[in-house]
């Protein structure tokens, strides 16, 4: 029997938890000290449905760090090597955030609400503490806090149809990594074209938890003929899509360049960024290891609950950190960090899985 | 069926996880993004055993923030309103840590290893990010990092006997909230008399995860006639003992005074402390609500997974955040935060539990 999750106030519920329970959630993880569903029917059944219909995801665990005030833009630029000087209201940008050594602290989406107001929609680390302490140490004129905002995602090939029925036809014209303020039941919501799948869709930033259940219910009644279901980020699909998971595929030990995120490091222009000097050095020398996608031979591998060592004939050359059997590609798909000498597309390596050593092939691109 | 916990690299394993699995763990929570066992046989069976024998607990999730360097003492004092100017090497002190408004960020034990070297043994928040960013903002000469240190607790009435068999008779003379460096297998470990139960015992700060399994195995073979078992912090016993849980009974919204921790706030002398000015104000005015213990009428209440509203005849006066049926006291024991007008010992109130409203009586002291 796999261990159950003991739920307490500390593993926070979301505005959607009662609906998620009623929809028959069967697995959870804890993400930003909050409940994040991982499985409803089965990971494979959820995967097929995500690729063919439309799902509503409780991703309230993507907590927001709100930064507002005269020095908000300056503080947000200190957090990331991505140059935000041209960022416009209405944009939401993927922004790797680093410490003073260039180590990844989080890989959030930053939403620009006003010239002096931002939401940082975080991955799994208490970035709030980092941002607050920098603001105090540098005596900046900003407010930094966690607002009552809970993202709800609509993902899948029918996402546009569902969003249009609830938020109006304007939803269809939202561009990738842009948002519009669209009304539901008389209240405007930030609706962004983004999300943690390759199937397309939206993330709705639900301000004020009391709107959570009415919005959830409206999506399900509007989408009954679209076969809308409760879903969640799907392990198989996100590996096929090469979507990295902070804490799984990368940690504070890794630079953005190691994570394949060098294109987001405008370190010459992003002059306020903490860690800029360290990243200038990294950019000049290039990373010594980098994220790669590995196709692992044989039948379905067991769950990857700790890094699996990857070897070449010369010895260890990296690790696999996420892996799953892909029904669509008929192979095990995986994400790992591979040393420079072995990271070329097509290199054959061996992965030490709990089911024994397995052959594997390096890919530069993911499957989707 | 209660949802299972989906385990990945992100919900980190500990050096003891394989042993914990082999011992038959049946429930987990995630604490500091790491696995923390919550149940082995059953919460009640674990409770009776904890009170009568001795248990070994994997509390590696109490991660350490190491602070070292010329300004280490200065930085650690910035984190807490407790006056650390007299703290000696060999002491480990309970140190509430607060933000600039006096809100609780964590309630760790701080261990003084050398004049310029500390471990902060944290509750459930990424205090590392707070401490690192303060050090950067104030340009302090310190190193701040998470070392490879995993606490293992020995708790229960036979803890002294077990510790003495593995670490020698010197273990018996360790005073409360002090530590000694004692050898196991040729390696010295920090062994402190502390732990998250009222049954007495030790926390061993296991440096270098490779020592984890040999130490675990030595404790189990030395203690077989003491009925040693794998255990974990026990919900019933910790509520009986009035031990607060950060994230459950208190959050960033609460001051130390609200948490009943005013005695640790030496705000007049702890002059480096961030949040000191706010806490001087709080100390002068007194808190408006405070932690109390409530005896809840009737049979066993369901698990407390979100705050339960507490009412007097005049309306809402607070909330209960931890609750369990106590076999030894024959009542429901609980911890909550109660407004000033209703917090006097003996006040009768009503608690909105998921099993319906229940009468309750306020206690100033816990049961153990």
UniProtKB/TrEMBL annotation, chains A, B:
Residues 17-267 form the GCVT N-terminal domain. Residues 289-366 form the Aminomethyltransferase C-terminal domain. Keywords: Methyltransferase, Transferase. SUPFAM superfamilies: Aminomethyltransferase beta-barrel domain, Folate-binding domain. Pfam families: GCV_T, GCV_T_C. One of its GO terms (molecular function) is methyltransferase activity. GO terms for biological process: methylation. Substrate binds at residue 203. This is Dimethylsulfoniopropionate demethylase. It comes from Hoeflea marina.
């Amino acid at each position: 029997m796999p261990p159950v999750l003991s739920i307490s106030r500390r593993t926070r519920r979301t505005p959607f938890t009662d609906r998620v329970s009623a929809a028959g959630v069967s697995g959870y993880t804890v993400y930003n000290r909050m409940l994040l569903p991982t499985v409803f029917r089965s990971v494979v059944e959820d995967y097929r449905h995500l690729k063919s219909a439309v799902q509503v995801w409780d991703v309230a665990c993507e907590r927001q760090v709100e930064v507002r005030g005269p020095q908000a833009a300056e503080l947000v630029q200190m957090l990331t090597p991505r140059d935000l000087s041209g960022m416009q209201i209405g944009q939401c940008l993927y922004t790797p955030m680093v410490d003073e050594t260039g180590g990844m602290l989080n890989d959030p989406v930053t939403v620009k609400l006003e010239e002096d107001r931002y939401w940082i929609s975080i991955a799994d680390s208490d970035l709030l503490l980092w941002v607050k302490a920098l603001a105090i140490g540098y005596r900046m004129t900003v407010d930094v806090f966690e607002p009552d905002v809970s993202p709800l995602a609509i993902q899948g090939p029918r996402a546009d149809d569902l969003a249009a029925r609830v938020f109006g036809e304007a939803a269809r014209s939202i561009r990738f990594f842009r948002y519009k303020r669209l009304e539901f039941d008389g209240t405007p919501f930030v609706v962004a074209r983004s999300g943690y799948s390759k199937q397309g869709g939206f993330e709705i930033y639900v301000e004020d938890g009391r709107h959570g259940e009415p919005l959830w219910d409206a999506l399900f009644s509007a989408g009954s003929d679209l076969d809308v279901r409760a879903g969640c980020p799907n392990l198989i699909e996100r590996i096929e899509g090469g979507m990295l998971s902070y804490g799984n595929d990368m940690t504070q030990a890794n630079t953005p360049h190691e994570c394949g995120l060098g294109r987001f490091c405008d370190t010459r222009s992003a002059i306020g960024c903490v860690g800029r000097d360290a990243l200038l050095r990294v950019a000049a020398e290039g990373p010594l290891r980098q994220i790669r996608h590995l196709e692992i031979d044989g039948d379905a591998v067991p769950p990857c609950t700790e890094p699996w060592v990857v070897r070449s004939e010369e010895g260890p050359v990296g690790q696999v950190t996420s892996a799953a059997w892909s029904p669509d590609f008929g192979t095990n798909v995986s994400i790992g960090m591979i040393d420079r000498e072995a990271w070329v597309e097509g290199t054959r390596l061996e992965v030490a899985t709990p089911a024994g050593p397995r052959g594997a092939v390096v890919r530069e691109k993911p499957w989707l």
